[in-house]
Design brief:
The protein is of the alpha+beta class. Helix content is 25%, strand content 31%.
């Protein structure tokens, strides 16, 4: 964050997020092309979500599914293009680790085609198949 950037806040409230903007990002991403807008919005309601908001604008979003006790699966970690490469992805992942519904969950998993380096920097390890990653907190 630069001196001229407004404060950036973390929220767990779906009501405070621009879910239409997030859904459009997912629809345009390789992992969301087979989904419908309705499926994406339903997924938000069935997941633990975190948003990054700056001056009332959604700049990032994260989502995980979990049993709330033993494991969680990161599904979406999104930082809108204008805000990338400034540490906000890390804040989203940490926000999910700290999420009230997920706090204390020890085993975390994810699948990615192109962000292995980012997740390795957060302590995730590769699975033997090279697609999935995991981390034990």
């Amino acid at each position: 964050m630069t001196a001229h950037e407004p404060s950036i806040g973390l929220t767990y409230s779906l009501a405070e997020m621009d879910l239409d903007a997030v859904a459009q990002f997912i629809l345009d991403a390789y992992w969301g092309r087979s989904l419908t807008r309705d499926q994406i919005h339903k997924s938000f309601r069935g997941s633990a979500c975190v948003g990054l908001i700056s001056a009332g604008q959604q700049i990032g979003f994260g989502r995980a599914i979990s049993d709330g006790a033993t494991s969680a699966y990161l599904k979406d970690i999104i930082v809108f293009d204008a805000f990338q490469r400034r540490g906000f992805g890390r804040r989203l992942v940490q926000g999910l680790f700290d999420h009230p519904e997920l706090s204390g969950v020890p085993d975390w998993y994810l699948g990615t085609k192109d962000a292995h380096g980012f997740y390795k920097s957060l302590g995730f390890q590769m699975s033997p198949d090279g697609i999935y990653m995991y981390r034990r907190l």
